[in-house]
Amino acid sequence: MTYELSDKIKNLKPYNAVTGDYKIRMDANESFINPGETLQEEFLSAVASIKFNRYPNPMATELCEGFARYYGIDPEMVVAGNGSDELISIIMGAFLRPGDKVMSYSPDFSMYQFYGNLYDKTNLVIDKKMDMILTAADVLDAVMEYKPAAVILSNPCSPTSLVMSREDILKIVENSNNLVIIDEAYMDFSDQSIIKVAEKYDNLILLKTCSKALGLAAIRLGFAVASKPIARALHAVRSPYNVNAITQEIGRVIFSHPDYIKKSIEEIKEARDQLYFGLLQLEPNKSIRRIIKPDTNFVFIELSNAEYVYKELKKYSIIVRQFGDFLRITTGTKEENEALIQAISKILV
What we know:
With 349 residues, the chain is α/β, with parallel strands linked by helices. Helix content is 39%, strand content 17%. The protein folds into two domains: 7-30 and 260-347, Aspartate Aminotransferase, domain 1; 36-256, Type I PLP-dependent aspartate aminotransferase-like (Major domain) (Aspartate Aminotransferase, domain 2).
């Protein structure tokens, strides 16, 4: 008897992460700040204390308490995961039934649709308007029309870099009878978070990550924040020991340094603004159609020749991310930003 792969995975391809040795990496929305340098001694001490022959704390208790303390919420609302991806996977697999409609938007984080397909959901993907702006009215009209079981979107949005207001997000939550999943991966760079009121809602799950503002992409650590009944349900359906001991210890250490986190965020925002305003100086060039003012750690720029610019930047050993006619450019250090701006100015001559 011959086993055959199911149709849904037969032609799947692995996630297309950019590889290659580039001097300047501005493609993955990582932080240019490495906390392993400033906090090296504490990281090493924390890892040295681990009993490697024992399973990690199954609830990631100290880690979740540190996260909750930093964001000013009840730790019982917090569930840690092996990156936000694991939490999205759990929600799609356990909180929704096969065939349920999951409404998302394009462009947005591609993994929402990936996990929807993987868990036999009906993906309703709605194209955003030309200006990329999404409002509560847009979402609620679509909810009324399509009646999804869940709505999922990032705020601020990757890749557009635009943020919806706190008021708009709460309108969506309060006027929907479905599950609402808001991915706040980039909210540390903006000021419209609803994390402080998340406990009030029985249809809301927030997602947070340590890969962006905290500079911990290497350890794969994300969090879900929800009302206590939803948080308990997430604990019940996640894998036991899903966050390894090294990740828990590194995360615990960084959340014990709130001033360091805040200082890093301000440094990233300053570099982002330098990148944005530097690119604006190139806007008179006819190849540049628009540059969106960001609420993230990256800039989204539309060009008439995006693919050409993307390929030419590689010759300067600079890698960014291409989305059709757009380039998503993660802020680097001030020196890296200057190198990127100079390279684009030469390419567009």
